[in-house]
């Protein structure tokens, strides 16, 4: 197990990202469909989240609720694994001002998030487009899968197509940065209050509380970027860029337009964050214990 030493954060992140993504994807599907809905007539009409689930399930069964799952389970675990790994590496270099740990966490999270987004944005574009394959559209307009979607984007839009939504996504790295900064601050405070060394293993209930508080806070603060990112990646409507998307959304829908799908995102983030962090923490501590035997 010595080969795993130094990679416990990476492996833990992959495990946490995979389990949480596979479990909570239907909520992500709803969030994306609500966020993309700017009033275009081709969009399906949902009176509520329950109505959306019922209509999607009625048309395609459970499979319909998992549209876009393939790029999600490729990109999310990889993103979480790299995020936790490089975040902790970068944090060790940026942690030069003990008086301002929140700033250190925020800086480390932003740098890490930006690097990972550059590597994974093509998968997020495909995830968005596959989630927005509406049940009532002709089958010939549907993507055959992740590979088919990647080929279609490359053929019709080139490299630029893989980086649609990149700018708001880059701004959105503050979501993970804010979340992880709050999470680590709460965890450090808890360890200090119990008289434990920093980064000591805590009870699952502590991780449950800290992950919930940190993710809900960061989601509400930064959600508008998710709407912009989704709409720019959507293949049904064309925008000239981030500013065009922002101005058209504000003009037609007002501030409310930037929070479409926020409820679904918040509902999703509760179990998603809890599963991600608990699996991550337990996996990395398991690897650390094995490496000592």
UniProtKB/TrEMBL annotation:
<keyword id="KW-0813">Transport</keyword>
<dbReference type="InterPro" id="IPR023395">
    <property type="entry name" value="MCP_dom_sf"/>
</dbReference>
<keyword id="KW-0677">Repeat</keyword>
<feature type="repeat" description="Solcar">
    <location>
        <begin position="202"/>
        <end position="286"/>
    </location>
</feature>
<dbReference type="GO" id="GO:0006862">
    <property type="term" value="P:nucleotide transport"/>
</dbReference>
<feature type="transmembrane region" description="Helical">
    <location>
        <begin position="106"/>
        <end position="126"/>
    </location>
</feature>
<dbReference type="GO" id="GO:0016020">
    <property type="term" value="C:membrane"/>
</dbReference>
<feature type="transmembrane region" description="Helical">
    <location>
        <begin position="64"/>
        <end position="86"/>
    </location>
</feature>
<feature type="repeat" description="Solcar">
    <location>
        <begin position="100"/>
        <end position="189"/>
    </location>
</feature>
<dbReference type="Pfam" id="PF00153">
    <property type="entry name" value="Mito_carr"/>
</dbReference>
<keyword id="KW-0472">Membrane</keyword>
<protein>
    <submittedName>
        <fullName>Mitochondrial carrier protein</fullName>
    </submittedName>
</protein>
<comment type="similarity">
    <text>Belongs to the mitochondrial carrier (TC 2.A.29) family.</text>
</comment>
<feature type="repeat" description="Solcar">
    <location>
        <begin position="4"/>
        <end position="93"/>
    </location>
</feature>
<keyword id="KW-1133">Transmembrane helix</keyword>
<keyword id="KW-0812">Transmembrane</keyword>
<dbReference type="GO" id="GO:0055085">
    <property type="term" value="P:transmembrane transport"/>
</dbReference>
<dbReference type="InterPro" id="IPR018108">
    <property type="entry name" value="MCP_transmembrane"/>
</dbReference>
<dbReference type="InterPro" id="IPR044712">
    <property type="entry name" value="SLC25A32-like"/>
</dbReference>
């Amino acid at each position: 197990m010595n080969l795993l030493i130094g990679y416990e954060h990476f492996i833990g992140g992959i495990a946490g990202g995979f389990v949480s993504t596979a479990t909570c994807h239907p909520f992500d599907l709803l969030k994306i469909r609500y966020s993309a809905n700017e009033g275009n007539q081709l969009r399906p009409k949902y009176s509520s989240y329950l109505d959306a689930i019922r209509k999607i399930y009625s048309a395609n069964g459970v499979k319909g609720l998992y549209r876009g799952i393939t790029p999600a389970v490729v990109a999310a675990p990889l993103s979480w694994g790299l995020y936790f790994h490089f975040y902790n590496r970068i944090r060790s270099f940026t942690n030069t001002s003990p008086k301002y740990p929140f700033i250190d966490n925020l800086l480390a999270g932003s740098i890490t998030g930006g690097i990972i987004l550059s590597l994974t944005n093509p998968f997020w574009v495909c995830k968005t487009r596959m989630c927005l394959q509406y049940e009532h559209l002709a089958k010939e307009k549907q993507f055959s899968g992740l590979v088919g979607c990647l080929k279609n984007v490359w053929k019709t839009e080139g490299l630029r197509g893989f980086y649609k939504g990149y700018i708001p996504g880059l701004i959105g790295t503050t979501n993970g940065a804010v979340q992880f900064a709050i999470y680590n601050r709460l965890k450090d405070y808890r360890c200090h209050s119990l008289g434990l060394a920093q980064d000591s293993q805590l009870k699952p209930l502590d991780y449950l509380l800290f992950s919930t508080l940190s993710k809900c806070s960061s989601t509400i603060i930064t959600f508008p970027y998710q709407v912009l990112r989704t709409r720019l990646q959507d293949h049904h409507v064309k925008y000239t860029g981030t500013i065009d998307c922002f101005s058209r959304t504000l003009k037609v829908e007002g501030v409310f337009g930037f929070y479409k799908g926020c409820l679904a995102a918040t509902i999703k983030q509760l179990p998603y964050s809890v599963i991600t962090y608990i699996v991550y923490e337990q996996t990395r501590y398991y690897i650390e214990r094995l490496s000592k035997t």
